[in-house]
Design a protein that fits this description.
220 residues; five-stranded mixed β-sheet; five-stranded antiparallel β-sheet; 15 strands; 35% strand; elongated
Length: 220
């Protein structure tokens, strides 16, 4: 009799404890999911719209000396970005966030050099003006709180400019110039101004296609 009475009670007791303990991990996970889900949705930015592709043009022929050192800037072109003038709000942020000037969406890679179709030639690009404290080069993540209008409404406080530079990266084999012909990046797109972490851009900078060739000269 004792065994018949005590065994069911132990089973019931054990079962009730297991039910409670099984619920605890789910409650903890649900709490963390809610906490981090709200935080991730709260702190981010998005562009106000997409303003399209802004073209940059190099001369029909760019000539570089065979003797130029690796790292030499072969040519640089600076132009205003028409869609990024004073007073233009380009982002809306909730709880802060980041703005990126980069080759592609994803983690920023400082001092990135983009590829070209010409062996021995790469490119870089930087932004200046627009209320930026200093020129911003590839790849840079900027906290929205450091920008005019931030952290809630990043806004250009003056005209924004882009500078695209061709750089010697090795022995040059002359030929027609194209950007990012394969691999990382989009063909003939210099870079993107991404607003927020979701890979949405306010504008892109592009190179006029099939307009430039790179030549070498021993006399330079």
């Amino acid at each position: 009799m004792t065994s018949l009475i005590s065994n069911p009670s132990r089973k019931m007791y054990s079962f009730s404890i297991n039910r409670r303990t099984r619920k605890l991990p789910h409650l903890v996970l649900a709490s963390f999911a809610c906490l981090f889900g709200v935080s991730a949705a709260y702190a981010d930015c998005s562009p106000t719209e997409f303003r399209g592709l802004v073209p940059v043009t190099f001369p029909s022929t760019v000539t570089v000396s065979d003797n130029a050192a690796i790292g030499t800037v072969i040519m640089a072109v600076t132009v205003p970005v028409p869609v990024a003038s004073s007073g233009v709000q380009y982002g809306t942020c909730s709880g802060g966030g980041n703005v990126y000037w980069s080759l592609i969406a994803g983690p920023a890679i400082p001092n990135r050099v983009g590829a070209t179709s010409v062996q021995g030639v790469g490119y870089t690009a930087s932004l200046s003006g627009g209320g930026l404290a200093s020129p911003v080069g590839f790849d840079t993540a900027i906290n929205a709180s450091w920008l005019p209008g931030g952290p809630g409404a990043p806004t250009f406080s003056s005209q924004l400019y882009v500078t695209v530079s061709l750089v010697k990266t090795g022995h040059i084999v002359p030929g027609p110039l194209a950007l990012n012909p394969h691999g990382v990046g989009v063909r003939d797109v210099v870079g993107h101004l991404y607003v927020g972490d979701r890979g949405s851009s306010f504008f892109n900078i592009g190179l006029t296609s099939n307009a430039t060739s790179v030549a070498t000269s021993a006399s330079m």
